[in-house]
Amino acid sequence: MPGIKLVEYPPPNIATQGAAEIRKYAEALFGKVIQALTANGIDSPGTGQKSSTEPGPREIVIKGNLDEVNDVFYANRWTDGLPIIPPTIDKVEEFLKYTDRSPDEVIGKFEPSKRECTVWKVAVNGIMAGCRPEYMPVLIAIAEALVDPLYPLIALGTTHATTPLVIINGPIIEQLDFNSSISTLGPGRQANSTVGRFTRLLLINISRFLPGLNEMAAFGWPGQFGMCLAEAEHESPWESLGVERGFQPGTSTVTAFCTAGLAGAFTTVGDTADEHLRGLAGFIPRNIDHGTLARSTRYKIVVLSPLVAGIIAQGGNSKQNVKEYLFKNARLTAAEVKDMEGFFVRKVDFEKLSQEGRVSKQYCTTNDSDLLPMTHSPDEFIIVVSGNPRRNRSIALRQPRGYPVTREIKLPQSWNDLTRDLKIPRQT
User: Fold this and answer.
1) 195-207 CB burial, b ≥16 within 10 A, e <16
2) Contact 107, 117 (CB under 8 A)
3) Which of 33, 38, 200, 414 is the most exposed place for a label (fewest CB within 10 A)?
4) How many C-beta atoms lie closer than 10 Å to residue 412's C-beta?
5) What digits encode the pLDDT tens for the residues 64-117?
6) Separation between Cα atoms, residue 340 and residue 302, nearest integer Å
7) Percent of the chain whose pLDDT exceeds 90
């Protein structure tokens, strides 16, 4: 929007101001608003939109050694602050061998920049992240998921520091050596680490989520560098997340969530399903931000170690049973909800939201001891099995906006030929 007229409201933190103070500042701006609307000039500052001087796909932006390349990329804010692998033309073309799609094909426009994400750009950002060429089908599926209208892409720049969480399912886990076991979200495995990093570089270079521009996180957190988790399907007593979301067994998929933080791994104890379920129900609602009740979705992602999942399943519980149990029992009192909601709870008309079907009638209670659910339905609990198979640990995350999106990882027709003699280094 070239030439847009902007008047900034001071001071920046409107959330802590009372009505009288807001009115005082607004009245002081009235003259500036008139001037901006009637005068020429006052162009807006940079918006992160694509400019006419932006380099083309095959244009060489820098020739030099590794340090010189990284200095240019850093200065142009094309990195996450860490060194990158230079995306040379030869490397891009090597990545493109692992897809049947045209390098110029537009996967979609990324919010908020409206920039087009092409297959070529996917390869470029994958290279920069340190991915291997054979990861290309996974990277394309991630880009497709992020650009889906159901995915809350534009919300990733909020002060909450929401960030993508990518979960991998299917045979591709073993083929490409993704980690689904000890330290599944931690460092150490090339596939998880670089694919996770790729999602952040895509947001930096296509969406232009840059600190102070479109990325406005109050603090940020390490998970924003990228999170990629593989489900431990062979150790899980239940169907995989990919199958649960409608894909046939044996199909490789990627599911993109957005999350606003990772609760520390917690312990549940006992040798019965009921003991572990009670532990989950007690921990989850008090260690994940409840999220404002007015939002249309409030997904909770619960990652169980194979040990915990196995004990729960031995008690005769399906994955759906676990969801229904958590919906009924992972609850907070109305008084606790009010304390957690803080600023937001005073702004919500619960009666109106209840009439619209957006929240349960329970939220209209005046009794502080009433127990209130964390989600709108059992299906907003997502159960995944991953992590150390010998520990009684679980983690929980929340997706405060939008919907998780699953995409099939589509392999090129020549995949078997390309990977027949593929030697991916595997750790001992």
Assistant:
1) bbbbbbbbbbbbb
2) yes
3) 38
4) 16
5) 999 999 999 999 999 999 999 999 999 999 999 999 999 999 999 999 999 999
6) 20
7) 63
